[in-house]
Amino acid sequence: MDTELPELPFPLRTYGPDGHWSHEDGVLTGWAGPRQDRFVTPTGEALDPASDAPRLLGAPEGDFQLIARVTVGFNASFDAGVLYVHVGERAWAKLCLEYSPDVPTVCTVVTRGHSDDANSFTVQGSSVWLRVSRTGRAFAFHASRDGARWTFVRLFTLGGEKETGAALVGFMAQSPLGEGCVVTWDHIEFRPAWPSDLRDGS
């Protein structure tokens, strides 16, 4: 079933385990269950290929920015709230506020067959602003402590022209080691344009 958020010009659909998604008074809420995650380890260790986490995704057209403030009810290491990009089963990316492993941190994962993993900056408290942008085949990740001045985190591509044109973007919750956590996203905003400058804080 499609979900309509008044802040977004495209419908969203649920993927993965049940996230108990709800939207009320401008706040989107989702739940990750015990040991739910999306990560394909690059180290060759055993991994359940069916590992998954609740996602609520849609397919915007053209250039865009998706912005939200994420707040995570941290209970265990690597609990996270995520803005997520998906172009294929092994081609996707996460921009996370994650308990990594003992302090809230802005983290990114880009998966091209296997996942990488990179930490950006730490956060005081349980909230941060996240932004995913796209132009053509390129995606950019930014994060902000106040929603006004943005820190450039990452620039990358996923898949080819055809796959990226059909990219799904949206929201994900994860609790890889824990018994689950609740995540909220508010101040959700959609802009139909690529940022004018990735590195000037705007």
From TrEMBL:
Return the protein name. Regulation of enolase protein 1
Q: Which Gene3D superfamilies match?
A: 2.60.120.200
Q: Which PANTHER family does this chain map to?
A: REGULATION OF ENOLASE PROTEIN 1
Q: Which InterPro entries match?
A: ConA-like_dom_sf (IPR013320), DUF1349 (IPR009784), UCP022704 (IPR015987)
Q: Which domain of life is it from?
A: Bacteria
